[in-house]
Design a protein that fits this description.
Elements (H helix, E strand, L loop, with lengths): L3 H4 L7 H7 L2 H13 L5 H17 L4 E5 L12 E2 L1 E3 L5 E3 L3 H5 E2 L11 H4 L4 E5 L6 E3 L2 E10 L8 H21 L8 E15 H4 L3 H6 L24 H16 L4 E6 L5 E6 L2 E2 H21 L2 E4 L12 E10 L12 H20 L1 H7 L25 H12 L34 E3 L4 E7 L5 H23 L4 H16 L11 H9 L8 H4 L6 H9 L5 H55 L4 H31 L5 H29 L10 H5 L4
Parallel strand pairs: 1-8
Antiparallel strand pairs: 1-2, 3-4, 5-6, 6-8, 7-8, 9-11, 9-12, 9-13, 9-14, 10-11, 14-16, 15-16
Helix pairs in contact: 3-4, 7-15, 10-11, 12-15, 12-16, 14-16, 20-21, 20-22, 21-22
The structure holds adenosine-5'-diphosphate (ADP) and magnesium ion (MG).
């Protein structure tokens, strides 16, 4: 049996390694940099780099890389070896402070959404000292942020760190008002629950659509889907169990707190949840988790699918972003406290989140928009595209009481006067949780459930941190000027509830009634990515990002452009893949089968035998094939037409309304043909074969 405690973090240059290997002064200087986010002096960096290199080489590393997160949504690395030539023709292993703190990858091929045209093309990476260096696959990885020379963020990490600073600053103002003198910083914490599919590699390799797009663009439902609900929390199959065991160990070595693993609702679907950590670490760790899932699945002759909707008609995969705010002293600000004063503080943070979600529904929706996630949001499985909040009956009742100025007669029969009451601790009872809510309070944190499985958690958390920072800053502005803190606090909480309670919904988010009710409440229903994206650059949103120095106007617009371009590119790749499959696999299959049927039909007619079956099947298949051929032609026409559109928004709209719509038309017919054509001719593995391929 392996000693997990020794395994854990063994590949991380973490605090204990720093302490053991760095001279005292250097260690102190580095700790100061980490705690205060100050500049790391070059002489200190040189000592740290050398110690890091020695440690990494002992662990078998030969290379180092600045590890960063460009706007592609995945991580990037460029490996340099430690070797350096000496005068006598030999080499030594070297790593300098300069190489540690700053790198210059060629930025020109990463998406920049027009930033490059306006600004300096080159970019550089800088060490995010709050995220430890680690060894992966024989390479020392330095987690970095990626910026252009003129200072624009070119990655997902930089704005996340900025948003964490923003909420830190504003939350500290509020805490000081409540007399908190001990906290030095406020941090946001995240525990992302990750869903994924595992399928057999041999089957995967026979599906070009999975290879090129991550999802099946064709395929009719299997006889057995998820209706028996026998997969959820079911016994793990041996291959899956072996995969999960190896994954856990590899994650633990990297200091990632992988905690829970289980089967999900759909066949072949699974989930992994870590213990939460500070948001930027949670981001790095989630990216590593997704990467390792793919690598380790491959070692087990499987493929890990992270796409939001690999199979139509089968549950898709999401990522639940459990989010909270806490002080550096470990106080969770979304946890009802033990004293009346703490509870008033809890209520203020709570209503700040309520106000934020209500006022920035559009931004939250944008933060989870992608071509892949369009298949989930609004379908009857994931949360709908309408953003609302679940608070649970008890907390809602308490807020109603405040709203109406009445006494609260809940379980604990407490008088509800802000600042003079003890709130009940809300049980984290899983049974009464509302699984349909996009944004649910779960006892001491919020669970934002709209993220797609393939997402970087950076985007949604940048938004969450920024919008909550904004509300806290408004609250602090009011309360800092207050002459009667208790009265003004009570009024502020009350008026915020009154204004923003429309965002609270504890019912079934999947029902049609909710769609109608949400509309009457004036909540947004941005159904698709293309519907949602333009809100990203609405002037109120530009303002909030600029005010908290998270995105400049230029940065925001460049990101908007990238998201639109991405959408169009994805649909284009999917449509090209579909055209290819229809021409090379589906049409040949139906024509082959028809030819067999027709010759049998002729033979039977010659012998005077009954040929009703052949006749009717041939007729049906032949008609559908003609129809499919027409739809294919339409799709190709639309794709040509798309080539003439230059405006990015118009192009994305066209891809959604014309190209994607044509794909759906063609798919319906192809999927029907799949149910009619003999297996002998149907070359693509079916859903049944894919979903039940691992045992
Ligand atoms: P479940 O949702 O499966 O019942 P939990 O509620 O315990 O499980 O936790 C779900 C996820 O939320 C885990 O990843 C956990 O680490 C995370 N989590 C728990 N507390 C916090 C917090 N204060 N901040 C952020 N994430 C948290
Ligand atoms: Mg959950």
């Amino acid at each position: 049996m392996k000693d997990i405690t020794r395994l854990f973090s063994s590949m991380v240059f973490d605090d204990s390694v720093m302490k053991a290997r760095l001279p005292k002064d250097t260690y102190k200087a580095l700790k100061k940099t980490i705690a205060q986010g100050t500049h790391l002096e070059l002489d200190v960096a040189n000592v740290v780099a050398n110690a890091m290199k020695d440690w990494a080489v002992e662990k078998g590393a030969t290379h180092f890389t600045h590890w960063f997160q460009p706007m592609t949504g995945i991580t990037a690395e460029k490996h340099d070896s430690f070797i350096s030539p000496t005068a006598d023709g030999k080499i030594i292993m070297e790593f300098s402070g300069k190489e540690l703190v700053r790198g210059e990858p060629d930025a020109s091929s990463f998406p920049s959404g027009g930033l490059r045209a306006t600004f300096e093309a080159r970019g550089y990476t800088v060490w995010d000292t709050t995220s430890f260096a680690f060894i992966k696959d024989g390479t020392l990885c330095i987690p970095t942020a990626f910026c252009s020379y003129s200072g624009e963020a070119l990655d997902k990490k930089t704005p996340l760190l900025r948003s964490m600073q923003a909420i830190d600053k504003q939350a500290m103002r509020v805490l000081r008002l409540f007399g908190n003198k001990s906290a030095k910083r406020v941090l946001t914490t995240v525990g992302p629950e990750q869903e994924y599919f595992l399928i057999d590699k041999k089957m995967y390799l026979k599906r070009p659509d999975l290879i090129y797009t991550g999802r099946t663009v064709l395929g009719s439902p299997p006889p057995k889907g998820q209706e028996m609900e026998d997969h959820y929390f079911g016994v793990l199959k041996p291959r899956v169990s072996a995969f999960m065991k190896e994954l856990d160990e590899e994650l633990w070595k990297l200091g990632i707190l992988a905690k829970t693993k289980h089967n999900e609702v759909a066949p072949a679907q699974h989930e992994l949840a870590p213990i939460f950590s500070t948001t930027n670490l949670a981001l790095d760790h989630n990216q590593l988790t997704m990467e390792l899932m793919k690598v380790i699945a491959d070692r087990h002759d499987m493929v890990c699918l992270l796409h939001e909707k690999p199979f139509a008609g089968v549950n898709g995969s999401g990522k639940h972003n459990n989010w909270s705010i806490s002080t550096d002293t470990g106080l969770n600000l979304l946890e009802p406290g033990d004293t009346p004063f703490e509870n008033a503080q809890f209520l203020l943070f709570l209503v700040a989140v309520i106000k934020a979600v209500d006022e920035y529904q559009d931004l939250l929706r944008v933060s989870v928009a992608s071509a892949g996630n369009d298949h989930r949001l609004g379908a009857n499985e994931a949360p709908p595209a309408i953003v609302s909040m679940f608070l649970g009956d008890e907390l809602t009742e308490i807020l109603e009481t405040i709203d109406e100025g009445k006494a609260y007669h809940g379980k604990e029969k407490i008088e509800m006067e802000i600042g003079a009451t003890v709130l009940p601790h809300f049980p984290k009872d899983t049974t009464d949780r509302n699984r349909t809510s996009p944004f649910a309070f779960t006892g001491n944190k919020f669970e934002f459930r709209m993220l797609g499985s393939a997402f970087s958690i950076a985007g949604p958390n940048i938004i969450l941190n920024t919008i909550v920072a904004e509300e806290l800053s408004q609250f602090a502005d009011i309360l800092e000027k207050s002459a009667d803190f208790k009265a003004d606090l009570a009024n502020l909480i009350k008026s915020t509830i009154q204004k923003h309670k429309k965002i609270i919904f504890n019912g079934n988010n999947y029902s049609d009634e909710w769609v109608k009710e949400a509309e009457s409440r004036g909540l947004l229903n941005l159904k698709t990515t293309v519907d949602a994206l333009p809100s990203f650059i609405a002037s109120k949103n530009e303002e909030v990002f600029a005010k908290h120095q998270v995105f400049t106007e230029t940065e925001l617009h460049s990101r908007y452009e990238i998201m639109l371009e991405n959408y169009a590119k994805i649909i284009r790749i999917e449509s090209l893949t579909m055209v290819d499959l229809l021409k090379k696999e589906v049409l040949p299959a139906t024509l082959g089968y028809q030819s067999e049927l027709v010759s049998l039909l002729q033979k039977k007619n010659e012998c005077g035998l009954d040929s009703t079956v052949e006749e009717s099947l041939t007729k049906k298949i032949s008609e559908l094939t003609v129809l499919l051929y027409q739809k294919l032609g339409k799709l190709e026409e639309k794709m040509v037409q798309a080539g003439t559109i230059t405006d990015t928004l118009e192009l994305a709209q066209y891809y959604q309304n014309a190209v994607f719509a044509s794909m759906s038309d063609a798919r319906t017919i192809a999927d029907e043909l799949e149910t009619l054509v003999s297996k002998k001719y149907w070359t693509l593995p079916t859903y049944g074969e894919l979903l039940y391929s691992v045992n």
